[in-house]
Design brief:
The protein is an alpha/beta fold. The chain has 2 domains: 2-174 and 358-374, Rossmann fold (3-Layer(aba) Sandwich); 177-354, Glycogen Phosphorylase B (Rossmann fold). It has 18 helices and 13 strands.
């Protein structure tokens, strides 16, 4: 088969969308090398490009207009290139497809991660929200098959866009393959020294957006900070809430107990998880929650949210909290800090659970969808 991907996120994005795309592509290249792969992207970060080991062709904008307006190229301008390749599958990896793509490939597939722009509209500019809505709704209607990253996202698609149940396949994502590699004690110490981290810390990983729930996490930590010598590390990658998080930390008098890291290098994340006492991820809403898997791969016990898709990601191997209740969050953090037996059980069970979410499994399930569509 000739398989084309919208690889913009894979080649330019360090957050969850990019992680999903790179994990899928890596699995495809390693498990199914007999197929031809074409990666469509307006540009490519060289470091991320080098992470993809396998045979593929990079397809960049052709012509002056397409190079000047890369967003337009992704929406319509790439169709002539796609048509000339005579592809069997075009897979949009992040909620969108080019308009009329079904006329230029045998079958179109789209992965839809979440509908946060509809469920938490206050986090988006009005223009962005309208654009996301138009693109996602079109992709959901146009695609021959939708891959949803969780049952939560599938439910949202059925409720919000009236998509039939049969059209949606739930395929859980995978963490980046680098998290599957055990981290040495020396590597943990190197990362702690690099970021000036304490020996004992609780970890939260996520961009600084309201749904990541940093403020309530800070309030919960404030309630128990005198009962532990561990510090709180907030590791993010951009987001407009950074200033507010910093201000709230100072307001609570926790400046000396909280470390705020913006733009942690991706290669350092496995050791950051491995060196933590636990990963605390009390997000209000996510399409899936890949940091839960990342932590489990590195045997960090996890506290996460009982609602949304995080409970799906945890699979019963984490402590689940009400993300709106500060006392519930504080009590569970303290319980896990004081119960070594529970921490060890969550480490071991979580690690075994994470093995089910490999890039190999993700690629195999997705390839099954392609084969069903093309016969």
């Amino acid at each position: 088969m000739k398989i084309a991907f919208d690889a913009k996120r894979a080649l330019n994005n360090h957050t969850g969308l990019g992680v999903y795309a790179r994990a899928l592509l890596s699995g495809m290249f390693s498990e199914f090398p007999e197929h031809e792969y074409f990666l469509f992207s307006p540009k490519a970060d060289e470091h991320l490009l080098q992470q993809l080991q396998g045979a593929f062709k990079l397809c960049l904008p052709q012509g002056l207009i397409n190079r000047i307006f890369p967003a337009l190229w992704r929406s319509v301008g790439a169709n002539p290139q796609l048509r000339s390749l005579r592809t069997d599958i075009y897979h949009g990896l992040s909620n969108e497809l080019p308009f009329a793509v079904h006329r230029h490939t045998r079958a179109a597939v789209v992965t839809i991660h979440d509908l946060i722009f509809l469920k938490n509209p206050e986090q988006y500019f009005v223009a962005d929200r309208i654009i996301y809505h138009i693109k996602t709704r079109y992709a959901a209607k146009c695609a021959a098959k939708i891959i949803a990253v969780s049952n939560e996202t599938k439910k949202d698609l059925i409720e919000r866009y009236k998509i039939s149940d049969e059209k949606i396949e739930v395929i859980y994502p995978a963490a980046d393959t680098r998290f599957e590699v055990p981290v040495t004690a020396d590597e943990i110490q190197r990362v702690k020294s690099k970021y000036n981290l304490p020996q004992r810390y609780l970890l939260h990983v996520g961009a600084f957006f309201p749904r990541k729930n940093h403020i309530r996490l800070l309030d919960a930590f404030h309630k128990i900070h005198r009962d532990t010598d561990a510090m709180l590390v907030l590791a993010g990658y951009g987001g407009f809430m950074l200033r507010k998080v910093q201000e709230h930390t100072a307001h609570l008098g926790l400046t000396n107990r909280v470390v705020i890291l913006n733009r942690v290098h991706g290669d350092d994340l496995p050791a950051l998880y491995a060196g933590s006492e636990m990963m605390v991820y009390p997000c209000l809403y996510e399409g899936f929650g890949i940091p839960v898997l990342e932590a489990m791969w590195q045997q960090a016990p996890v506290i996460t949210t009982a609602c949304s898709a995080m409970a799906e990601a945890a699979g019963g191997h984490a402590l689940l909290v009400n993300p709106y209740e500060v006392d519930d969050l504080a009590d569970n953090i303290l319980q896990l800090l004081q119960n070594e037996r529970l921490r060890n059980k969550l480490k071991q069970d979580g690690f075994q659970h994470a093995k089910n979410f490999s890039s190999k499994n993700l690629a195999a399930r997705t390839m099954q969808v392609y084969r069903e569509l093309t016969g």
